[in-house]
Amino acid sequence: MRVAFLGLGIMGSRMAANLDRSDFELTVWNRTTAKAQAFCGGHRAQRAPTPAQAAEGADVVVTMVVDGPQVEHVLLGTDGVASGAHEGVLCVDCSTIGAAATQRIAAALHRRGIRMVDAPVTGSAPRAQDGTLTIMVGGTTADVERARPVLQAMGETIIHVGPLGHGQTVKLLNNAVAATNAATLAQALIAGARAGLDLEALVAVMRSGSAASTMVELKAEPMRKHDYSTLFKLDHMLKDVRLCLEESESAGAAFPYAALTRETLVAAATMGHGEDDFAALLEPLERGAGIKL
Ligand code: NAP
Hints:
Layout: E1 2-6, H1 10-21, E2 25-29, H2 33-42, E3 46-47, H3 51-55, E4 60-63, H4 68-76, E5 90-93, H5 99-110, E6 115-118, E7 121-122, H6 124-130, E8 133-138, H7 141-154, E9 155-162, H8 166-194, H9 199-208, H10 214-225, H11 234-250, H12 256-273, H13 282-289
Parallel strand pairs: 1-2, 1-4, 2-3, 4-5, 5-6, 8-9
Antiparallel strand pairs: 7-8
The protein binds NADP nicotinamide-adenine-dinucleotide phosphate.
NADP nicotinamide-adenine-dinucleotide phosphate is lined by residues 7-12, 30-32, 35, 64-66, 70, 73-74, 95-96, 121-122, 124-125, 231-233, 236, 240.
């Protein structure tokens, strides 16, 4: 199967590497050419100068860029996939862009004979590297089954969650819970420090107790060390929580804890932490408490 992969950032470079290690004939494109050149230096993949050229002859096109406007540009803009792909090609968008953007882009693609599924991922850079991502897919059964071999090369758990767009909504809710969990963890560390606790003991208990979570595993130590080496950019988490709140509001559901998390993320971004890992949401909370861990 011939696969085009567009977007070689933190996640995309690792996901494309897993496709390259499998039996796919891979062509990659990235906005910053140097990254695509570096990728092709270490892999079998071919580099294409535009998304349209990457899509020529491809059976499946995977996109992993940041947001809706970027996906739209890469698929439907000048030199975009739609101007190079053959009719019947399947677009698998793994970016987190929200259900409304997915529906709009898919409708425009369908008018040009191109199919689409939304397949956002969770698991962050380490699981993208290991090929053990969880991937939530929205689309028709036929399209999802067509995408499955490609998804299985990048992920361990592939869940067909419903029709087109439902992958996005599931992903946004998942991330709002993760971000809110991280904000709660940061507040617990600050409260523990204020109370004079041994934070190592606190974290050890939380890891094996009822407070255990992926956020405790991934973010407690970086928060304690103020090490914000980026696994998932804070600006991207803010994008996701904002989209989640928009979707929840249009569905008529309140999500006040996610709204509080959004304010914390906005404060951290304003302090200059947008490109840092979202563990940096600790910073405005520390500032508010007048304490450094
Ligand atoms: P990233 O490292 O910032 O990479 C973003 C990619 O998008 C890069 O290839 C970048 O190209 C490209 N891009 C940026 N602006 C563009 C534009 N205007 N036109 C075309 N391409 C453009 O981000 P990431 O962490 O890989 O995240 C990618 C997506 O996955 C996001 O939707 C994010 O929310 C989601 N996600 C991330 C994680 C995580 O843990 N990191 C986990 C799950 C889901 P350049 O190289 O030219 O900048």
